[in-house]
Amino acid sequence: MPAGLRACSSSVNLPDLCALKTGDANAWDEAFAWLWPTVFAVAKLKLQPYFPNEVEDVAIESLEQLVEKVSEVKSVEELKPLAASIAHNRAVSLLRKRFAKKRGEGKTDSFDDPQAGGGISQNEPTTGDSPLADLEQKELAQRLGKSLAELKPPMGDILSDFFLHGLRYEEIARSRGVAVGSVGVYLKRGLETMRRIWGREENS
């Protein structure tokens, strides 16, 4: 199969990348449903302790930005890590703006919440369309994968199954050999652990 067709082919339960690149409305409806849990979870991870009412708006804006960047994506598997990095960047940008406005100045480096692990470093990447911002988003996608790998088994695998691969609770439970009722618990604890990991990295 030619390389171009391989890049555009769609795996089972995954969106059709070629259709997305042509702006097919039905394909994007399916993609939004597939990506929504990921962008919502990442936005919630950052914003829930401070501005919970903004979580949904940031998730929606992240998907809108992803539409603009889909032409740069080479495989459908790249969509979720990219969407996650965009959501993270937008959430951090919003936090900076809100707290800078609240304090009446442009510094937010002292803003920190050890309990939530949501401290913001001034070196945190922000959203944007510059080459630097694109590079930071790729690095953040790699960071997401690394953070998942740091979680104790099967927590990292379960988060990856749910947010990156779109598996249902029943499929995860069967694949990982855990009770269906335990999947939600693992997801909750995993997100809390990732919040602490990211907060520790940002404050180091």
Write structural notes for this entry.
The protein contains nine helices and no strands. By secondary structure, it is mostly helical. It has two domains: 147 residues, no CATH class; 54 residues, Arc Repressor Mutant, subunit A (Orthogonal Bundle), CATH 1.10.10. Helix 3 packs across helix 5 and helix 8 packs across helix 9. The N and C termini lie far apart (47 Å). The N terminus is likely disordered.
Give the SSE map:
Elements: H1 3-8, H2 17-21, H3 25-47, H4 55-69, H5 79-103, H6 131-150, H7 155-164, H8 169-176, H9 180-203
Helix pairs in contact: 3-4, 3-5, 4-5, 5-6, 6-7, 7-9, 8-9
What descriptors fit this protein?
204 residues, Arc Repressor Mutant, subunit A, 9 helices, 67% helix, globular
